[in-house]
Amino acid sequence: MPRPAARNRSLYFTYPTYDFVPPRELGGATLTHDVVIVGAGPVGLTAALELARHGVACVVLDDKNTVNDGSRAICIARHSLEIMQQLGLADRFVGKALGWTHGTSYFGTQPVYRLEMPHSADERFYPMYNLQQQYVELFLAEAAMANPRIELRWQNQVTAASVTHDGATLQVRTPAGAYELDARYVIAADGARSIVRRSLGLPLKGESYEGCYVIADIRMRSAHPTERRAYFDSPGNPGSTVLLHRQPDDIWRVDYQLPPNESEEEALKEENVRRHVGRIIEMVGERAPWELEWWSLYKAYTLALDDYRHAPVLFAGDAAHLVPIFGVRGLNSGLADAMNAAWKLAYVVRGLAPEGLLDSYSPERRGATLEIFDLAARSTRFMTPPTRGYRAMRDAALALAVRSDLTRPLINPRQSQPYTYAASPLTSHARRDRDFQSGPIAGAPIVNQRMNANDYLLDRLGTGFTGIYFSKQDSAPAAVSQLAASLAVGDEALTLIALGTQQAMAAYDATDGSFYLVRPDRHVAARWRRIEPAEVRDAFRQALGRGPS
May I ask the CATH class of domain 3-92+131-205+302-370? Predict the structure, then answer.
């Protein structure tokens, strides 16, 4: 059981301390594990829980004995909450997090843009939630430690990694000595300074951006609603940018761009953080006393590996890519990496799919990263202009936006959206996809459609593949049921869902007899305006990495 940690002090969060348990290898055991995950952050723990959901055991290694300090990544997108729903953790997240739909951007103190993310009463989750990363890691770690298929080894520091002819070997240091750990496959989720990545000599490539931010947490009582606030050239930070977010427990995130004449060393001094934050709090009109909780420094990068798979090692999260915080894409893209890697590894480890299925991981998730780079780079150049020319254009757009709608779309922060695997080798039958006018296209995630008062589509998904058959009778004919039964993967049946409500048909642009084939990670493998059984079988084979028949 965890107990309070002495080294992490917080105004609101009790840091757990997890005991070191000597691993079997230190006692002389020679073992080869199917999957070893390096890093017990949100990405690594999500991957572990998804593997366990598919019946695959894994070992998770982390060099700490508690969760990470500070709020860090705080914005969790709807798509990520749907991941937590699949893992059975959504209620715990929603019970603590603060949901939001809106944001306001200011030039000086004048509002110039109102962000309104799509939301309706038919949605289970808000478009975005604010929750400190300590809670994210705590909830995931507790679920992982309660799962008999997950062995979570705290204070097990990976110091080196190498690829062998039949897997990978990790060198691990512990308080009781060092040992070697052999694995068929490794998920490297060990962050921006990944030891696994460096051991294999794999560089991140891309760009770094001008501008540096201090991110600070303060505790303050305030009646201001949960929304994103962005200030450009305001009295609270003249010539630079400020971001404000409310978090649970009366904690506020204050991000402010450093002026060009302030060094990073000076910026991190507590007295300077307090001075900057105090000026910002005064600017926004808060009068309540506040306390400083935590602070850190942030720079924007668009860096990625050339390939997210290196033989038996799959890189995920910051170990694979670094993306700017603007648009809250880092954590959310990392969670999508974890789900993508884990379901595919589970099928390969269990012998339900060929190893070639893993070849789709890099094109799918690196494709997502490149899309993020495109969108985030635009946001980053707007938030922190790299040249005088960019700055002049940005400020002109903001000044015009005070009085005119013309330039307001340029201020859109372009919040995180799930990626569509349209060009994936697992996505097929594009010509059938073109028969639809709307609905989630092949490669896109499905819509978590409300079915009844407390019943949503994702509640009905099974563990593996899903077939959604649309019928006004709310039932599937015997031939479709037989088709679904023939598409079992080992002991993992395809879940057949029959939908007939007007709302569901409209959301999916479906008619009687329409059919969607959905992967375990909720992305559409293929869809048909009118079901074609032979093509469904073909698409199923392709989505398993077996290629078309």
Answer: alpha beta
